[in-house]
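In this section we walk through a basic example: taking a raw amino acid sequence and producing a predicted 3D structure, encoded as discrete structure tokens. The instruction is simple. Fold the sequence below.
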Amino acid sequence: MKITRLVLLLVAFATGAAAQQDPAKLALAREVIAAMHADRMFDAMASQMKQMYARMVPVSPTTTPEQQQKAEELQAKIMDVTMTAAKGLIAKMDQVYAEVYSEAELNAMKAFFSSPEGQSMLAKQPQIMARVMPMAQEMQRDIGPKVQKLIDDSRAAK
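The resulting token sequence is shown next.
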């Protein structure tokens, strides 16, 4: 019985120790995330999400100005909730980076993202996404019928 308690105590201690990060490594992870301008990425996403939400709530010819205003207010509330959650996610990323990446990897990432080349890469990401997203949407349109056929064939075989 004493051995079981001792083993459980050691497991609990080891788990707790693993969950705590070295403060210096955590600070380094924060520096990497700051160098990556993660907050700016979410702000850019917000702009794209606003456009997406606007398309999701089409305006019909019978929509009154009051209904339109209510729809816009709803969109604004949805954006607020989404962006608050996204900012909270950024605040937790440092812990994940510190757990996943080694100190050497974090130092290399910090050096790269702080360099002119790294900053250029980050600045060009919206251009990359603007070009890739239509390709991804086209791919989804192309494979949609194929996936549906596989599902239908599977159901028919049962």
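Looking at the output, two observations stand out. Residues 18-114 form one domain. Residues 47 and 106 are 29 Å apart (CA to CA). In the next section we compare this with other chains.
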